[in-house]
Amino acid sequence: MRELPRVNVSEDFYMWFDLEEKKEHYATPLYLYQVKRDRINPDDETKLYLKLEKDISKVKAGKDKEVIRHPSTIYIHYVENLGAMLINFLNADFTNYETAYNTFFYAYGYELVKDYVPNDYFKNDDYIDDIKFREIIQDIFETGSYTFIEWQDNFKKCVDFVYNLNGNEELKGEENKLAKFVAYTIRDSEFYTYSQDIEIITDNYINIHNYNHNETMQKLIKRINNKDSKLELHNFYTSTKLTSMCFAILDQVVRHENLQIKTCLNCGRYFIPSYRQNEIYCDLANPDQSPTCREKGANEQYKKNLENNETQALYRRIYRQKFMIAQRNKESKVIQKDFEKWKKDAKDKVNKMKKGKLAEDEVYKWLVENK
Q1: Residue 220 lies in a domain
Q2: Would you list the DSSP string of 139-157?
């Protein structure tokens, strides 16, 4: 068995998968520019996730601020939902160097596109100013943008075929996603090449022993029972090719029975449902920080349900009746006063029902008794 070449974790890209938890973990060195590192769990300092804080096109670059390089290791690494990197690649905007960074490279770095990266990016300096960093990512984009778009298009074609998306209905009745994926890989004159240039490093207990051999047997067993990730073995995937790493991720996703790739009914982006396989709206973050499509869809459906439910219909029907009576009897102060009071009370109860403060059957009963 081979030990993970730890001397290179500050230079190369590594990924490993937790299929039971539907998570992918990765280690990559990158310069964090307008990026925030947060813990997945406040009590666990080993697992982090990255979030873009601000659109870099709206940030004025200057030499007074240094960009810090943050190499990650197998003990302090980044975690996402299984398939997230592939989904981010499929949805990435390679229109210009800024959007390419905002939608993809901010989280994964440039180690997987080394052929297009200036050599000085890989110097071991811990700091560079943000003007230099912006020059580097612009150089990367201008050198490799057409290739990035070609790779993205090839992966979209494969995903659309396997999951019958974007109008592709070829072999729609074939339910075995893995069989379709393998057949597509064999048949396509270019896609099969993406399965190359990836190395799988078998993990072992050397590092775990070195860091934990002084623990008591009882404490070790307790940590193992609690699934402490520091005590788990993982095979590592490493590559210098973005296409190879995305291929490895897609291979994992199609093998997982409970994962589906879909396109959002609202925004059209690719996504993997987080809760139910029949979801139609994605939960992906929006650049403008607006509610996700899933949140928007849920709100719209909630409004439609309210409009179509019996209580809401009864309220509208009684309102129309009382309004017509009030219109025909404008000179009657008693009728006008009763209508205004009913309207205020009914509207208050319906609003509380919408906010979940009153049960629907309670409001329905009140409307029947006060119609």
Answers
A1: yes
A2: HHHHHHHHHHHHHHHHHHH
Q: In terms of domains, do 163 and 72 share one?
A: yes
Round to the nearest angstrom and report the end-to-end CA distance of the chain: 79
Side-chain-facing half-sphere of 307: CA atoms under 13 Å = 6
Task: Specify the pairing of strand 77-81 against strand 35-41.
Answer: unpaired
C-alpha–C-alpha distance, residues 37 and 59, integer Å: 19
Domains contained in the chain, number = 2
Q: In what order do the strands lie in the sheet with 77-81?
A: 35-41, 44-52, 77-81, 23-27, 13-18, 236-239, 198-201
User: Which residues touch 124 (CB under 8 Å, ≥6 apart)?
Assistant: none
Q: Determine phi and psi for 138, rounding to 5 degrees.
A: -70, -40
Residue 270 lies in a domain: no
d(CA 303, CA 165): 29
Q: How far, in Å, are 71, 146, 230, 232, 273 from residue 205 at the CA level? A: 23, 43, 11, 9, 35
> Which residue in the block uniquely carries the two structure tokens 């009657």?
332
Report which of 20, 17, 85, 3 is spatially closest to residue 49, judged by C-alpha positions.
85
Q: Per the domain annotation, does 53 fall within a domain? A: yes
Q: What is the pLDDT of residues 273-314, one digit of tens each?
A: 987 777 888 888 876 667 888 777 656 655 555 556 778 778
**What DSSP element (H or E) covers 348?**
helix 333-354
**Domain range for residue 59?**
6-259
In whole angstroms, give the CA distance from residue 29 to residue 260.
Answer: 30
- The reply to whether 276 falls in a domain is no
Orientation angle between helical segments 242-255 and 177-187, nearest 10 degrees: 150
Residue 236 backbone phi and psi in degrees, to 5: -100, 135
Query: Which pLDDT tens digit goes with each residue over 62-92?
Result: 887 788 888 887 778 899 999 999 999 999 9
346: amino acid identity, one letter: A
Q: Enter the pTM of the model.
A: 0.75
User: 255 with 319, same domain?
Assistant: no
